Amino acid sequence: MSAIDNLKVEFSDRARQIVFWTGAGLSSPAMPSWISLRDQLFSEARIANSRLDGAVQKKKNAELAAIAKIQDIWVQFDRVHDLLGRDSYVRKIKDIFSASETMPIPRAHEIIWGLDPSGVITLNIDLFTQRASANMPSGAIPIQIQATKFAEHFNVLKEKRPFVAYPHGHIDEPNSWTFTKKDLDRRLTDASYIEWLKIIFRVCTVVFVGVTASDVAIGGPIEKIVAKNIPLTGHYWITPRGDLEASEWAEQSGVNIVHYSVNNGSHAELLHVLSSLKAVVKSEDYEKERPVYLRNLNGEFKEPISPKDLQRLSDEEKRIYLNSEAKRILQNRDLNAKNSEYAAFLAKYQRAIHDSWYVSSDPDDNEFIGYRIISKVDEGAFGNVYKAISENGSTVAVKILKNDNFGRTDFYKGFRRGANSLRIVTDRGIEGVINYIDAAEIPPTIIMNWCDGQSLSTLVPANFVREWDEIIEVFSQLAIVLRKCHLLPERVLHRDLRPANIMIEGCFESIDEWRVVVLDFDLSCYRDSDDHSIMHSPAFGYLAPEQRGGSAFSRRNSAVDSYGFGMTLYYVCGGKDPFPDQHTTPSWMESVKKAVSSRKNIS
């Protein structure tokens, strides 16, 4: 795959947080390049010199001519700063860059924020980055990290807001500017800044835009990071440069070059590259709480029924009425009105709603929202699964979430999101996922195709899936299923990957007949739970730390599925459930080696 294709995968998967590092090229031509700024300061010095008397003017002009011959532009800024004097130097730079307060924002800045990054490190002192942050899809106001404050923001990636970092200063704080050699030396010897960058490079994917390969302001910190044995592979530089110097810098730094062409001085192709990244950023629309209601309600109630009269009806009639009312209320587009009416509805019919959870396999009393319950086949911490028969005689699985959490907002949100996720992957035709048929709000129920197989939580204790070829087959299929779900336009994550949710059809046949089927997309609600049975459930060890802690970033981060995938593999190899945060213990690697060595046919 090309560098741009790999970068698209980064934006699609969000396995790591993404941070942009931008330079003067991003604000061009609205703002001057560094060389252009130097030339404008030279012009300012000439104007100032012209006001001086003959001998003094001649001396100052000679000094300016000597400065122009200096090869190091950082030293040139040092000298022109001294030549102009502090006040004139600051005033001129402020005059130039203050225009960014009202000028149209360059489109590249807006696209970058539209990509929903975790943050932007900008070497520019203009206001474009700050103003463009209004384009964040979340509408969040970024945390501002000034040049002298990096020590206070080592944990910025754990925040629920993006950040803007100004290592070269902000227009309103001249003392923080980094233009001169003295400024640069101060910045490169700032241990807190280097340590902060080390965290960013270790945790995030960094994308350089509008910077040059020879810029010591970037190369200097990178050299210091490399010296600390922090690998820099997996980062990207979007640039029009394809020369040897650029290639050597990228190779030495471990950075991948994403090349674009400049035509007649136009960087329009840069916008095309950034827009192509925007095209693969997955929509979070499916994350929004959408109503869940039966597609075909068997029964019609033209008039409202009082709670007292509803109690006279059968449990099945109660379910039909309650779901028809829930559907009517949840179709209201006025969010506040809908939430208010729905809360009142739940309170009004509380007894009937509790009755709706009644399930029986007695042939004379086994009707449940249009299906006939045959038997209970599984019971978990969050719900029960029943084998049932539809009206047309097909076998289905009916999963009913338990009523222990009735009334909890997050419980219903998780259920609705999970039902919607399963509906999406079914509608998209993703193979290897249990097919969604229907769902009911009351009680929270999902109807799915029947899977005639066994879960890994059943097979592993029975000494199945022990050979390496079997393990590789199962997890290869599982990886393909997850990958397809992550790459959907809706970017569906599972978020509850564990042995009980992975079944194998044909598991008693030859390995060629095995078919992995994934169940229960996001149907469990663990976040911030204080329920004893949940916190001590084996399922907890399969959740990524950010899921248990309620991190906002985990909502759209495919790494949570990678974590569940890895811990499930650990279980299959070793036969033991992982405990929460086991991967952080000193004995973790030894535990992994022990689990792997217990498998057969290892070489």
UniProtKB/TrEMBL annotation:
Matches recorded under SMART domains: S_TKc (SM00220)
Domain of life per record: Bacteria
A Gene Ontology molecular function term of the record: ATP binding
Gene3D superfamilies assigned: Transferase(Phosphotransferase) domain 1
UniProt KW keywords: ATP-binding, Kinase, Nucleotide-binding, Serine/threonine-protein kinase, Transferase
Parts forming coiled coils: none
UniProt domain Protein kinase: residue ranges: 371-603
PANTHER family cross-referenced by the UniProt entry: MITOGEN-ACTIVATED PROTEIN KINASE KINASE KINASE 20-RELATED, SERINE_THREONINE-PROTEIN KINASE NEKL-3
Record's protein name: Serine/threonine protein kinase
Organism from which the protein derives: Sphaerotilus sulfidivorans
The organism's taxonomic lineage, starting at the top: Bacteria, Pseudomonadati, Pseudomonadota, Betaproteobacteria, Burkholderiales
